[in-house]
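Lay summary. Proteins are chains of building blocks that fold into shapes, and those shapes determine what they do. In this project we predict the shape from the chain. Here is one chain we studied, written as its sequence of building blocks.
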Amino acid sequence: MIKNFEFFKEKIIDSEKKKIVLVGSEDREALISLKKAEKIGIADAILVGNKEITKKYCEELQINFEIIDSKTPESAVEIGVKLVNSGKGNILMKGLIKTSILLKAVLNKDWGLRKNKLLSHICAMEIPGIDRLLFVADGGMVIKPNLSEKIEIIKNSVEFLNDLGYANPNVAVISAVEVVNDAIESTIDAAILSKMNQRGQIKNCTIDGPLGIDNAINEKAAEIKKIKSKVAGKADLLIVPDINSGNFLGKSAIYLSKGTIAGVILGSRAPIVLTSRADEEKSKLNSIALAVYSTLKK
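And here is the predicted shape, written in a compact code that computers can read:
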């Protein structure tokens, strides 16, 4: 169990610096987070974007990273993806650029970064009052996943959590209710995913569902509802029914609970830091630390 984002920063301070390629580098908050990442010794950077604007921000912030000029968002992401693919960069980071443009380059058949069947998003949340980090998938990539896509989302997420040091993470498949209801498709999918896990079709984790958000993360709520489960109240990873619920959950952690989050795209050959353009530098720095730690050999 990892309690907060400081865990990652403490663990990677003495490791070799990773090279982060920021595409859409005219992003002031992202540049601030990269400056802090360099200052604490966890990352260096290559900046790809509008050189004039980027250089202005770098001078203002007293940053001295390599800048590669790009006239369009499309050329910026192509340059960035190719840098990571060639090994000149270790991690790709989204700056002031549309997600759709970034992903089109990542999925390019000739020089993209796709590795697994499906790209998915995972969000880590540090929330006051919760004794551990909570991970949520997928609130950033797959709009309305079917059963097959949920399987891939879980596999991507569990592989990532295994890389973070979770030997057998607890996975809660979330729905509005914690019993199977044939009128609520997400409860049926949850029951199938749980049985697949029991039979060894989905490995390296313990899955239970359907579970409500309350009894997935709070042991008292699970006890009151008389839910007997290894996962109930102790979930590490929450699998949500669709992008809406995952997106709301992540933003609620920030704006309603005063928490902090981090976001990474999974299923690619290298970590891709993906946060909202509206996120503050703290969330971006957390995402960098999370991505860097996932690349280290444990």
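What the prediction tells us: The chain is about 40% helix and 20% strand.
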